[in-house]
Amino acid sequence: MQYKIFDAHLHTYGTFLAKDDDLISYLDRHNVEKAIITTVNRAASSKIYANDDNGTGEEVSDENRVKKAFENLRKMMPKDQLDHQDVINISNLAPERFVKFFWFNPKIDRDDVDKNYRILENHFKMGFHGVKIHSGIHLIKIPRDIMSLASFMQEYNKNIPLYIHFTPKFSVFGGISSKDLAKLAQSFPNLTIILGHAGLAMEFAIDFGLSLKQYKNIYFETSCSIPYAILSLVKMIGHKRLLFGSDAPVTNPLQLEIEKIMCLPIRSDQKQDIFYNNTNKLFLN
Asked: Could you tell me which residues are beta bridge partners of residue 172?
């Protein structure tokens, strides 16, 4: 059976898009009719693994490699919000297919918060209908660092979703917990929250499913998840709050992420809801 697909996590560029390929043809080949699309920080992505030897010519030790990688990322972070002209250009080719999300860094220009929200509001007026934050790259504490963003979004238009890139705890960052997300959902009950990479590991999926089931404003996006974690979320919260996402072409090829849903031992109508209907309903208002 061929399913209609609404990809809830797509980028304009990435490793798994061949140089001689274009994004719309790539989507067509995989039956992706619609997609939430955002930009990608190409400069930061290309520099994250660069060794920083301080001119000594010596390789960075293993114990400092993770720290150096994220130092490289922070050095490459723009001083202003990312340019989203690539999102606009691609969306203009097929406006009916794309929902534009603005990749927002809430930690830029804290002395001029209004500037950030003027930029964001201008993009909303240009047809952007969602916001993405990357907790790992920007080391964002939830909910502390996004309280003003969530407040602004809920007041501006409660139907504009906030996508949160889930990052677990690692050596230089405390990560995001289910308690953090519960606090956010409680504080902003009218804000639609999409938890990205919700089934990144079994332990996280079980924790999120059990702890966040009661918060009806939280949806769970499937990219980079393991199939059994996705299935566990279906069993714990029901399939209606799961959104298919690929994170293509940055971290995964589309086909790999599609197969994760295809292989699940659930009904065809449930798969169609995850692939398309659940995401589509978020943008019918």
From this structure: none
**CATH number of the domain within which 155 lies:** 3.20.20.140
In a domain, 268, yes or no: yes
- 226 vs 257: CA distance, rounded Å: 9
Would residue 140 count as lying in a domain? yes
Which residues, including other chains, have CB under 8 Å from residue 223's CB and lie 6 or more apart? Answer: 8, 9, 196, 197, 245, 246, 247, 251, 252, 257
**237 neighbors 231 (Cβ within 8 angstroms):** no
- In whole numbers, what is the pLDDT of the chain averaged over residues? 90
How does DSSP classify residue 103?
E
Does 247 fall in a domain? yes
Phi, psi of 33 (to 5 degrees): -85, -35
Where does residue 55 fall: left (phi above 0), alpha (psi -120 to 50 degrees), or beta otherwise?
A: left
Note the pLDDT of residue 52: 53
CA dist., res. 191 & res. 218, Å (int)? 9
> How many domains, in total, are found in the chain?
1
Show Cβ contacts of residue 237 under 8 Å, excluding neighbours closer than 6 positions: 209, 212, 213, 220
Segment holding 230, helix H or strand E: helix 227-237
- Phi, psi angle pair for 206, to nearest 5°: -65, -45
Q: What is the per-residue pLDDT across 5-63, written as a single tens digit (0 to 9) for each?
A: 999 999 999 999 999 999 999 999 999 999 999 999 866 555 555 555 555 556 665 55
